[in-house]
Amino acid sequence: MIDTLNISIDRSGIDENIDLIGEIGARIEIDPYNSNELKVEGKLGNLKVVVTGMEIRIYGSIAKYLKGDNLETLSLEELKMAIEKLEKELGIPVRKGRVTRVDMAGTFQMKEKPLLYLKKLGWLEGFTRGTFSLDSLYYTRGREKVIQLCFYDKGKETGGKDLEVPPGNLLRYECRFFYKGIRWLFKRNLTVDEILDEKVFNVFISRWHGFYTSIFKLGTNYLDVDFNSLKSASDWGALCLYQMNTQVDVLKALKDAFSCRKERRAGDVSLNNRLKTFTLKMLERGKRFTKPDDLIEELNSLVESCYGER
Predict the structure, then answer these.
(1) Are 4 and 176 spatial neighbours (Cβ–Cβ below 8 Å)?
(2) Maximal CA-CA distance, the chain
(3) Distances (CA, A) of 107 to 27, 62, 165
(4) CB under 8 Å, gap of 24 or more: what pairs does 61-67 form?
(5) CB 205 within 8 A of CB 190
(6) Helix (H, G, I), strand (E, B), or coil: what is residue 185?
(7) Is there a contact between 1 and 72 (Cβ–Cβ < 8 Å)?
(8) Residue 221 exposed, middle or buried by CB count within 10 Å (0-12, 13-18, 19+)
(9) Stretch (H or E) spanning 110
(10) How far apart are CA 225 and CA 30, in angstroms?
(11) Is the predicted pLDDT of residue 157 greater than 70, yes or no?
(12) How confident is the model at residue 222, as a pLDDT?
């Protein structure tokens, strides 16, 4: 499940007799253009390594470091193997390092083109939805990156590279926990040694799964509904609101209307909160009257399968 693991190892956690720049620099492929007497920067396999007199920073895909590519991510046991390899090659206690980024990911072979599935993924409360390219979809929490979900065409990313890519359409789902996201999740810094604990590792996997299930999914024809499933006028209202939300982010519209109101009145905040709560309940209720969408059902099944195999 794990792909990227960024680490910062403080000088205090390393044998004081080790000359970081000299000894660690000799173990990596140095980039002379970005190195000087105060800092050495280079590569250890695919990993970027930055060494100063005060710390060592490691960036990149730990899955690719161990396996040669990151098409398949690492299990907990494989992560332990990768850390052992890293400690042996660098000659330092990597386990004492502070984790600054964790990417949990799954790659799924789909029946159709990945783009078709991306169009079925709607809003996620607390996140900003954005598309930076035709074949990618992002959900970002916070102005400064805290947590980011990313869905993209993995086949296109690996196209032209020397990888044994399986046939079919590859959809990648990543959940990226940046430094502030890790602190938000655990209320403290996290060491590499701690992420090697099964309970901690499973927290990241559970969040990867939970964020996906919380995404509002879009279907094909929401108004194609069995009339006998409607018990009241409010059921019909819930269905219509659900349908409208596939075209317009109704919660954002409510937020904008509240922020841009012409005059402030007593009770505005309370009314806004009641409207938001009512809208969330109606959107959840509207799901009951929709027909299942084959593409979403396929993706849901693959995500659940991946989660169950952790």
Answers:
(1) yes
(2) 78
(3) 33, 16, 11
(4) 61/3, 61/4, 61/103, 62/2, 62/3, 62/4, 62/5, 62/86, 63/2, 63/3, 63/4, 64/3
(5) no
(6) helix
(7) no
(8) exposed
(9) strand 98-110
(10) 63
(11) no
(12) 52
The phi, psi pair for 147, rounded to 5°, reads: -135, 140
According to the model, what pLDDT value does residue 160 have?
47
Cα–Cα dist 217/123, whole Å? 8
pTM: 0.75
pLDDT in tens, 203-213: 999 999 999 99
Kindly state the tokens that stand for 189.
């810094």
Using the predicted structure, report yes or no on whether residue 289 has a pLDDT greater than 90: no
The answer to whether residue 104 scores a pLDDT higher than 90 is: yes
Q: What are the tokens at 226?
A: 């069995």
Q: Rounded to whole angstroms, how far apart are CA atoms 50 and 55?
A: 8
Record the tokens describing residue 235, joined without a space.
């059921």
- Residue 283 has which token pair? 């959107």
Tell me what pLDDT residue 309 has: 74
Mean pLDDT computed over every residue of the chain: 86
pLDDT at 227 over 80: no
Burial class (CB in 10 A: 0-12, 13-18, 19+), 69: middle
Identify which has the larger pLDDT, 7 or 309: 7
How would you list the strands of the sheet with 169-178, edge to edge?
A: 29-30, 39-44, 47-52, 55-59, 2-10, 98-110, 169-178, 147-153, 136-141, 128-130
Closest alpha carbon to 56 in 83, 91, 33, 24: 24
Residue 62: C-alpha distances to residues 75, 126, 186 (Å): 11, 29, 22
Asked whether 236 and 288 are in contact (CB, 8 A), the reply is no
